[in-house]
Input
Amino acid sequence: MRIEHIAMYVNDLETARDFFVKYFNGKANDGYHNTKTDFRSYFVSFDDGARLEIMNKPEMEDPEKALNRTGFIHIAFSVGSKERVDELTNTLRADGYQVVSGPRTTGDGYYESCVVTIEGNQVEITI
Output
């Protein structure tokens, strides 16, 4: 068994798509639009076959996202090396994203950083 994809609602579909394409080498499909409900989505595929569905529809709630909350907390991307973790973290910081931890080696042995990215959602960057 494997996870087929993970989905997330966003307010700005194109900005979210462009973020994952730019920083994580995602490949986006042409998008989907249900004209009856105005639901829109993109699937972003990554090199290892993982996929992220980013979606939007009218009248979504958008409460503030606390860093420490229940539910899904981050998406983790393995970038292959400590150097690449450092490089991508520095790039995201320079581009104005908030780095909330790392890069560091955690108590359970992960080398990682965690960055608050699009619309307050966290992305973990690890080896």
